[in-house]
């Protein structure tokens, strides 16, 4: 069988590339080893798909080359995808920080993409694994469980290593290396952090306790929700900082980002001299956490028994609480994979390989990783569209 464009991977990037190329009159075939297309789209955003973010800029992405994503993101913006969503009359809403979600279900986004593929004449084959790829004159020869395929252009949209239970593999990285591309080291991103030993013992029974907080590692910080788990910490603030934090690095938490605790506590001493510290702290923090902090570091006496400088020090500590993480939950629960195909070997405008004409890499397989909150979907749409315009 011959086709103009063969896309490996029926996820967000692959389907967008297929739509764009199909609309140009190209014969497009999409292969995926999973039993249905868009599986990660379906599970995203708690089943409502956080399909983009209104505040997307290149600064919201991690890459060895921070400039690489600029071209594709500029040429396919959040407004472009929103226009597609509105064309299909999918109701959506904005949550915090520019995040856009379906009102109903992520199934609507997958249906929209499949309908657009059908309208563009795109063929999609699921449950079809790629066994071997060879570059030959005029294109590529691809061996699959259903026979040999020949294509003029090959687009690798196979994703990263995150959530292997959904079928994630390192296939795209292996293919990149086969054709001479460098692959930057990969690790789990947007992932809960784990604690171990005494550090875990201190917080394990706080599992389920949640609060607004700011997580900091190095020069990077994120302010959002924090959740204690049986194994460590999670929540948006932790998922965000996990992409920047490395094992062995310091992690600090601001447990009261909306309050000047160093000034508030001495004022409380004057207003409520008989109240115990844990009771006062429980006005702003979850009760169980307030009690644990007092047990660990602050003691628990009536406020009048604390000197004002001591309370100021406690307040400062609440804005700079140390947390010693031992690692992450790994790819099992990670939303994305950091690292991937080195962008030095790709064109930033077309996503085409600089080494092999007609070979393209898009989406998560590339060394471009977005923040939590719709940024990774926007990279998928933008990089898929960039390749689809030229394949």
From TrEMBL:
Pfam assignment, any one: HI0933_like
Database matches in InterPro entries: BaiN-like, BaiN-like_dom_sf, FAD/NAD-bd_sf, RsdA/BaiN/AoA(So)-like_dom, RsdA/BaiN/AoA(So)_Rossmann
Cofactor entry: FAD
This protein's UniProt keywords: FAD, Flavoprotein
Residue ranges of domain RsdA/BaiN/AoA(So)-like Rossmann fold-like in the record: 4-389
Residues covered by the RsdA/BaiN/AoA(So)-like insert domain: 187-336
Coiled-coil regions listed in the entry: none
Protein name according to UniProt: Flavoprotein, HI0933 family
UniProt source species: Frateuria terrea
């Amino acid at each position: 069988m011959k086709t103009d464009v063969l896309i490996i991977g029926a996820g967000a990037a692959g389907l967008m590339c297929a739509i764009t190329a199909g609309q140009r009159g190209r014969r497009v075939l999409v292969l995926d080893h999973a039993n249905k297309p868009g599986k990660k789209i379906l599970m995203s955003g708690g089943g409502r798909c956080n399909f983009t973010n209104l505040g997307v800029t290149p600064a919201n992405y991690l890459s060895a080359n921070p400039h690489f994503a600029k071209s594709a993101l500029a040429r396919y913006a959040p407004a472009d995808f929103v226009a597609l969503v509105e064309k299909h009359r999918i109701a959506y809403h904005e949550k915090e920080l520019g995040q856009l979600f379906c009102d109903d279900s992520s199934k609507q986004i997958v249906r929209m993409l499949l309908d657009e593929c059908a309208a563009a004449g795109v063929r999609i084959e699921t449950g079809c694994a790629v066994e071997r790829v060879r570059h030959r004159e005029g294109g590529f020869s691809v061996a699959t469980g259903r026979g040999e395929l020949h294509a003029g252009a090959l687009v690798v949209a196979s994703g990263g290593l995150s959530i292997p239970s959904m079928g994630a593999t390192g296939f795209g990285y292996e293919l990149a290396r086969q054709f001479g591309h460098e692959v930057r080291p990969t690790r789990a991103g947007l992932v809960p952090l784990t604690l171990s030993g005494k550090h875990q013992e201190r917080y394990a029974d706080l599992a389920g306790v949640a609060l607004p907080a700011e997580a900091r590692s190095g020069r990077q910080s994120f302010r959002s929700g924090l959740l204690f788990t049986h194994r460590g910490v999670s929540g948006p603030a932790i998922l965000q900082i996990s992409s920047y934090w490395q094992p062995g690095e310091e992690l600090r938490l601001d447990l009261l980002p909306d309050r000047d605790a160093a000034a508030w506590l001495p004022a409380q001493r004057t207003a409520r001299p008989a109240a115990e510290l844990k009771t006062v702290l429980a006005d702003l923090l979850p009760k169980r956490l307030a009690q644990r902090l007092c047990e660990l570091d602050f003691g628990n006496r009536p406020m009048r028994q604390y000197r004002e400088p001591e309370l100021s020090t406690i307040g400062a500590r609440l804005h700079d609480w140390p947390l010693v993480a031992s690692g992450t939950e790994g790819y099992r629960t990670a939303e994305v994979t950091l690292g991937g195909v080195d962008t030095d070997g790709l064109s930033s405008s077309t996503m085409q390989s600089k080494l092999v004409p007609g070979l393209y890499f898009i989406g998560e397989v590339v060394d471009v990783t977005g923040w939590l909150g719709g940024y990774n979907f926007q990279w998928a749409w933008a990089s898929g569209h960039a390749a689809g315009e030229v394949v």
